[in-house]
Structure formats: C-alpha cells, structure tokens
Amino acid sequence: MKIGTPKETFDGENRVAMTPDSALQLQKLGYDCAIETGAGAAAGFSDEAYEKAGVEIVKTAAALWKTADIIAKVRQPNETELKRLTKNKTLISFFNPAGNEKGMDLAKSKGANVIAMEMVPRISRAQKMDALSSMANIAGYRAVIEAGNNFGRFFTGQVTAAGKVPPAKVLVVGAGVAGLAAIGTSTSLGAITYAFDVRPEVAEQVESMGAEFVYLDFEEEQQDGAATGGYAAVSSPEFREAQLAKFRELAPEMDIVITTALIPNREAPKLWLEDMVKAMKPGSVIVDLAAERGGNVEGTVPDEKVVTENGVTIIGYTDFPSRMASQASSLYATNVRHMMTDLTPEKDGRINHDMEDDVIRGATVTYQGEITFPPPPPKIQ
Ligand code: NAD
C-alpha cells in the first residue's frame, strides 16, 4: 500500500505530516511513500531530501490523493480534500470530530476510514502517538519565546557594571502539557516563575521544575483532576472568585502571563479579566494559548497581537506549532508513524484496522461507511 502526504491547504500552515526520516521508517513497515511536490518546503524539507529517502514526488494534490491508499496530513481536511476520499482509503489527520459533523458525514458517504489524531486515547501505551501533547509541548515553549520577543527586558536577573537588572516574573496559568513546557522554558531562561492550576496534583511537577505553585486561601480543596481523567472541570463560583482575587493580587507584579487553561468540550474559562490587564505594568506581555477556544484573557484577539492603552501586549496567535514547523513536523510525523506501526502488526505494508484495539478504535471516527464517533471509553488505562 502507498502512504501519501499532500501539501497543507490551510492558510499559513507550515507543517507537513511526513518527513524524510518518517518516510524511511514507514518504508520499513512495507509501505511505499509519496508526497506532493513542495509539501515539506515551509518546514525545511526539500523534494530532494524526500527523493533521497525513497519518496515518490507527485505533481498535484489531486494526483496525490488519487495514488495514495493512506493519506497522512496535519490540519482538518477541507471539503475539496474530503471529496477526494474513496472507499477503503484511510485518512490520518487532525479532524476535530466533535465540531465537524459535516466532514464525518462526507467521509462516511465516501466509505473512507478516518483516524482523528486528537482522538488518540491519553493512556500510557499511546503516548508515542499523542499529537495533542507533542504540539502542546511546542506551543508552551514557543509562547515563552514569543513573550520574550515582545518583552523589552531580560528574563534573568543580572548585576552588571551598567546597573542591576531584576529578573522577570512570569505567571503560567494552567499546568497541563503546554503549561509545563512554558514553565520549563521560563525557569531555564532565569525568570522567577509562578504557576497555577485547579488540579493541585500538578504542584509537585511545577515545583520540581523550579517554579512556585500558587495556592489559594480557600476552605475547600482545589479540584481533584484525577476524577476526570487528568482534565479539569468547571470551578465552583466560590473557587473562581478566590482564584480571581489571587490573580488580582499578582497582576501588578507580573511581567509576563501565559495562559493555557482549558476544560474539555467547553469554551476556555475567562480568568485574566480586563481589570487585571489594566493593573499590569506597561511593557508587560500576555500570551493567551487558549485563544482558539475563546481565550482565557479579556482583550485577546485570535491570531493577533494587540497593545492595550496601558502598554500591555496581548498575543492571541493560534499557530504556535506551525511557527516551529520543522520541529513540529518531525514530532507529528513520528506520531503518525507510530500510529502506522500499530496499524501494521505484520510489517507487510498492509493496514490491519483492528477495531478491537482500544487505541485504534478510540481514534477512528469513520469506518467502513459508518460514523464511529464518539468511541466507547477505553478498556485499558
Ligand atoms: P488541557 O489542555 O485540557 O488543559 C490545560 C490545563 O488547564 C490543565 O492542566 C487544566 O487543569 C488547566 N485548567 C483548567 N481550568 C483551569 C482554571 N480555571 N484555572 C487554572 N487552570 C485550569 O489539558 P492537557 O494539557 O491536554 O492535559 C491535562 C492532563 O492530562 C495532564 O494531567 C496531563 O499530564 C495528562 N495527560 C496524560 C497523558 C497520558 O498519556 N497519560 C497524555 C497527555 C496528557
């Protein structure tokens, strides 16, 4: 069978789902590989590099979708792309199934099998395919770099002949995958870093990275995320008030705020309100990693950088992984390659789409003319 990767069609998307390295690994599983000409260029992978790795270069997207049995791409496919699916083709991609009924219907009507990368169950065995985590890790790192790029001062404190420089103070709100990456980057650059999460079980991780966990003076315990599979639930109004009061206290002191707070299947909670933005010093920077889901910050404009009247920069970019396209493509292509390894137990270049396998079942959203989303809960933890 042949695995093909088209050039991404989403405006400004620089990533690619196959790299020369991942192609070599896919060939070891028995597959032929093809790529649309120029598909890797924006991520730093030339047609020549693919050719050297034994990948066939295909001239057009239409020809690529036609020749490939399995299509691996990054972004949710658009209608034109979905219409190119045919019976028994398999698509592996981010798909946003919960918000993409039309796409699922179209794939189903074509009889194609779709594996949605964001649906890979977050269990230990599937970590190597967890593209949500690999992309969130990049987003967290890049958020700090973008903040630094817009902050007119050092992160680390210095004593120089020209004067003493205080260290920057950074607050990371939400210590999941992206938040922890942001914390690690911030502490390694020398900033005094604080972090808050509604799940107190992350405090130890935060502290082990050299940051300070922000506790609330609150009677009730902070939420136990373990009850919701590691995800947060909506906070009680009392808890929220205590959280906002703490943020109000911290706002005038913080130079950089990075927000990453998300609750599954909901709009992002608004946590950094207008008065907190106003209380920050001129020159401070906020990066709202939740911008795509409505934002944690009042004043965030998705995909934009805005500067408030009091001189605070609010960054609402939603394309952080694409801003590090080479690294993001390598990690994503590796996630896809691991998915293919599980789909090819015999290493014979043929897909064995085992719907009894928790990980494959969990990620499959259409199969043999049926919509198979949402999946049943995984059996193995
Ligand atoms: P996410 O993107 O859904 O949320 C980001 C963070 O925001 C979470 O830590 C959440 O608790 C926090 N948050 C939500 N509401 C908040 C609020 N009001 N204030 C402050 N913070 C708030 O989560 P994620 O980063 O994708 O991962 C969440 C968990 O899943 C983590 O514990 C992570 O370790 C775990 N995980 C496990 C695996 C695995 O394979 N076992 C893989 C990936 C992630």
UniProtKB/TrEMBL annotation:
Q: Kindly provide the name given to this protein in its UniProt entry.
A: NAD(P) transhydrogenase subunit alpha
Q: Which residues form the Alanine dehydrogenase/pyridine nucleotide transhydrogenase N-terminal domain?
A: 4-139
- Signal peptide: which range, if any? none
Q: What is its EC number?
A: 7.1.1.1
Question: For this protein, what reaction is catalysed?
Answer: NAD(+) + NADPH + H(+)(in) = NADH + NADP(+) + H(+)(out)
Query: What protein family is recorded?
Result: Belongs to the AlaDH/PNT family.
Q: How does it sit in the membrane?
A: Multi-pass membrane protein
Report the locations given in the UniProt record.
Answer: Cell inner membrane
| Domain spans labelled Alanine dehydrogenase/pyridine nucleotide transhydrogenase NAD(H)-binding | 148-316
Q: What is its main location?
A: membrane
Going by the record, the broad EC class of this enzyme is translocase
Q: Name one GO molecular function term.
A: oxidoreductase activity
Q: Which UniProt keywords apply?
A: Cell inner membrane, Cell membrane, Membrane, NAD, NADP, Nucleotide-binding, Oxidoreductase, Translocase, Transmembrane, Transmembrane helix
Q: Which organism is it from?
A: Ruegeria sediminis
This molecule's function is given as: The transhydrogenation between NADH and NADP is coupled to respiration and ATP hydrolysis and functions as a proton pump across the membrane.
Q: Does the keyword rRNA processing apply?
A: no
Q: Which residues of the full protein are shown?
A: 1 to 381 of 523
